[in-house]
Specification:
With 327 residues, this protein is α+β, with helices and mostly antiparallel strands. It is built from 14 helices and 10 strands. It has a 5-stranded mixed sheet. It has a 3-stranded antiparallel sheet with strand order 1-3-2. The two termini are 28 Å apart.
């Protein structure tokens, strides 16, 4: 990430995927959806099944889920504190997103983490903070020290960056590169790279069910996802060439293309840069939702493939596997 952003002491706004993932930090949200999955429940019935949480807490969670269209609330006439609650199609989609997050949590360093546990909540929060603050984008490109990160991301104060990095390190999302001298550069772990699955699934949920209430996919989001996932690719050993991966995004009033250029030699990724410049034998291009739908749909779907289609399709299918099957 060559450019920097003006400094601010405020918490960074959630980027694409962040709001959906943040819903999973609160275990009551998923428990509400799971209790509603068999059929509608009244407020009283739902509260009993959830272990009688405080009414104010339950109302707060139901309101947050309703704002994103995950739950439909039907108030009873003349009873302002009572209603029937029903899971929506968006709510079922959120449960499916939880499955992607659970698959990621099962391969956590040090052993599986259960969704809703303290360890899982800390890990999801650290992932969202790293994603929204651009720490993930910067470190996905190359290892960087805290001082280098501070110069690249000046909109966040040095102490705030340090706190976020510490939280990410404690969760196993980043680690200090060994034998790197006194600068102590941080690098992403394999588990953070595998986090591309939950993040892209969260972005897909937001674009499908709550596009007006959530952040749109922008250039840095597309670059971050590719830079995280591409080193995980499992490709045929005979594959060679360069493939351009492009996403049509809107960072302003006009659309532009963002993505990555990948070089492959004998089935191994030897280079990946967040740039679309340069010659390529193959390419794959599409809108954000076309790319994001790949996580749950076989084949190349709505993407446009060109040049060496065997190379392009092999890369796309390997990206699908990397996002769907953390191991």
């Amino acid at each position: 990430m060559e450019q920097s952003i003006s400094r601010s002491s405020h918490r960074p706004a959630l980027r694409a995927g962040g709001r959906a993932l943040t819903l999973l930090v609160g275990p009551l949200n998923i428990e509400i959806l799971r209790r509603l999955e068999p059929g509608p429940r009244s407020t009283q019935s739902l509260r009993r099944e959830l272990g009688v949480p405080p009414q104010s807490t339950l109302r707060l969670h139901l309101r947050a889920l309703a704002e994103l269209g995950a739950v439909d609330n039907h108030p009873h006439d003349g009873q302002p504190t009572s209603a029937d609650h029903e899971i929506s199609r968006a709510g079922r989609g959120l449960l499916h997103l939880a499955e992607h997050v659970e698959a990621w949590l099962r391969v956590a360093p040090g052993g599986p983490k259960e969704l809703g546990s303290t360890g899982a909540r800390s890990s999801i929060k650290a992932l969202v903070d790293g994603w929204s603050s651009h720490i993930v984008r910067a470190l996905a490109a190359r290892p960087l020290s805290l001082t280098e990160l501070n110069s690249l991301i000046p909109r966040i104060s040095y102490p705030s960056l340090e706190r976020r990095l510490t939280a990410m390190r404690e969760c196993g999302l980043v680690e200090v590169q060994p034998d790197a001298g006194r600068l102590r550069p941080y690098k992403v772990t394999r588990w953070l790279r595998q986090g591309v699955g939950p993040v892209t699934a969260a972005m897909a949920w937001e674009r499908t069910y709550a596009p007006a209430q959530t952040a749109r996919v922008r250039r840095l989001d597309a670059e971050s996802a590719f830079l995280l996932a591409i080193p995980l690719l499992d490709l045929p050993t005979g594959l060679n060439g360069r493939c351009r991966l492009a996403v049509e995004v809107h960072d302003g009033t006009s659309p532009l293309f963002a993505g990555a250029l990948v070089t492959i030699e004998r089935g191994t990724v030897t280079s990946c840069v967040a740039s679309l410049e340069g010659q390529a034998e193959a390419w794959a291009s599409g809108r954000p939702l076309s790319w994001l739908r790949l996580i749950d749909r076989p084949g190349d779907g709505e993407l446009e493939l060109g040049g060496d289609r065997v190379l392009a399709r092999s890369v796309v299918e390997a990206l699908q596997r990397a996002a769907r099957e953390p191991n």
